[in-house]
Amino acid sequence: MSAQPAAASPESSDLAALAARVGVTFHNVALIREALTHSSYANEHPDDHTPTNERLEFLGDATLGLVVAQSLYERFPEVQEGRLTEWRAQLVCGSTLSRIAVDELDLGPWLRLGRGEEQTGGREREGNLERAYEAIVGAIYLDQGLDVVRDFVVRTLHDDLEALTRDPDILNPKGALQQIAQDGLGRPEYVLLRSDGPEHERHFEVEVRLSGESLGHGSGSSKQEAEKEAAREALAILRARLAANAASTGDPQRESGA
Length: 258
Prior knowledge:
Elements: H1 12-22, H2 30-36, H3 39-44, H4 54-75, H5 81-91, H6 94-103, H7 115-119, H8 126-144, H9 146-156, H10 158-166, H11 173-181, E1 189-196, E2 203-210, E3 213-220, H12 223-249, H13 252-255
């Protein structure tokens, strides 16, 4: 499935440096260039015949879903299909992939953007980073095949997969909080406390309340991320209370938060 080597270009050495960061020796380095090329760049540079990353993103999205599904299937043999589907959705969602694109690969500076997209914060935009990560997965698949893709995905998602092993609710703390709260505590209420910053650098602060009591605070670059952080904090508090109650009543099921 390997592609033919790309012709040399002024960017080849830079792209090889990124390939080293990705951890893959590409036969066709031009595939990395394509994976980084936003439609705004193509529109402003008609003489540059590099395709946009949209087709590679399409391929990478499908490949990523398969690899993550297989990894979850093998790591958690006792977990049922519904929970595995939920975890896969959380692992391949935009907020997760954009974070990985920054923390693991530092993709922002490498994106090929048009001037307008650049000036409005395109290098930090979640959608651009998510799509670039998926496009790189597609590029690796075309150049190296599925086994190398699997190594790349499992390596870059390693911390998230390990976190699932330690705490199965970590990817969906809002769902876990609602499940615990439905036992007489009512529906969690998420209250936006603050929202500020320019469009490309927004900051949100949220608190979550149960029966009028504030149990958790969270902040993040999106309202969803702030709510998840608040839910994690509230979960820790509720579980500690359940454990204390279970210790006094001798009820191990309540101690586990089941």
